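Try it yourself: sequence plus magnesium ion, in.
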Amino acid sequence: MPILSINDETIRQAAAHIARGGIAAFPTETVYGLGADAFNPDALAMIFEIKNRPRFDPLIVHIAALGALEKIADLSMLDTDTRKKLDALTEKFWPGPLTLILPKQQTVPDLATSGLPTVAVRLPSLASARQLIALSSGAVAAPSANPFGCLSPTSAQHVLAMLGDKVEIILDGGPAQVGLESTVLDICGGQPRILRPGGIPKEAIETVTGPLAERQPLNDTVISPGMMKSHYAPRASLEARDLETMIKTPAEEKCAFLFFDGASRDKWLKKQKQPHDSLSIKTLSETGNITEAAARFFQSLHELDKPELCRIYAQFAPQEGLGAAINDRLQKASHI
Ligand code: TXA
Ligand code: MG
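Structure, out:
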C-alpha cells in the first residue's frame, strides 16, 4: 500500500525518493500532485508515462521559496512593466494557487516545458508541500496526480484508486483545501491572460494587474493544453446545465444529479413525480457558498462516478469568483 500518512518523517522519505529520481504523489492546497525532480529528464519522462499524458502538455514547476524563481525563470527577459506586475502578483498571491507563465531558464529540461520557451511556475501555500520541495531538489515538476483527462484528485484515496499500481509513495494529507487547480496566468506575452481559471479568481488578479486579456474561446488551436476541450472528465458522460434546464430534466435510472446549492436541488425535487435514488443526488454547497462548492467539486464527482452510472447532470455555478473555474471544469468534462 503506497499511502503514507504525512509527517516530517514521511515527507523526508518522499523527498529523498524524488531526489533519487523517483516519483511521489503529495498534497497541495489545490489538488494532489505527482512530483518529480524538475531537472531530471528521466523522472520527467516517467511522469508523462504514468499519467499517459501527451508530451506536448507542459508541466508546472513547483518551488519552495520566492528566491528559487530565478533558477527556473529568466526574469532578465521581462520588460520593466511586466517585471512590476510579476512582483505585485507574487507579493499578493504567493504562496498560493497561482501559476505564472514566464520565460524559461535554459537549464530547465525541454521535457518539463514541452519544448516551449516559457515555463509554468508555482509556489504552493500548503506548508508540507513546500517542505517536500525544499528537501528534495528545490524544484518539483508536478501535474495533477490523475491519468490524463480524468477527474483531478483531491484526496490520497483518489490517487490510490487511479494510479496506485504505478506510484510508490502517496503522501496522505487529507482532503485538498481549495479543491480546484491553480489559476494559470500568462504574463510574458503583453497584457496578462488567464490560460486556465482556477483557485485565484480573475477578479482578484485584476485588482493587481488591471484588466486581463480575453480568454481564447475553446477551439482546436491550443495555447495551453489545459485549455483543451475534453478534460477533467468522469467515466460516466457528463452534461452541464443551467438551473432552468436542470429543473426540466427528470430523474432517470442510472443517472446522477449534481446541484450547486440546496435551493436549486429542492426546486428540482419538487418537480419529480417518480421516487428517486437519493444516493445519486449531490449538492456542492447547501448554502451556495462558492468556496465550499469548489472544495467539494472533484470529491463529489468521484463519489457519483460509479461503474453502474451512465450519465451525470451537473448544474453550472454562478459565473463569478471560483464559479468560473468550476464552470470551466464542467464545460471541459462535458465535451467528450
Ligand atoms: O494546482 C495545480 O496547478 C496542480 C497542483 C499539483 O499544483 N497542478 C496541475 O498541473 O494542475 P497540470 O499539469 O495538471 O496542469 C498544468 C497546466 C496545464 O494546463 C498546462 O498546459 C499548463 O499548466 N502549462 C504548463 N506549462 C505551460 C506553459 N509553458 N505555457 C502554457 N501553459 C502551460
Ligand atoms: Mg491536470
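One thing you can check immediately is this: The longest strand covers residues 255-261.
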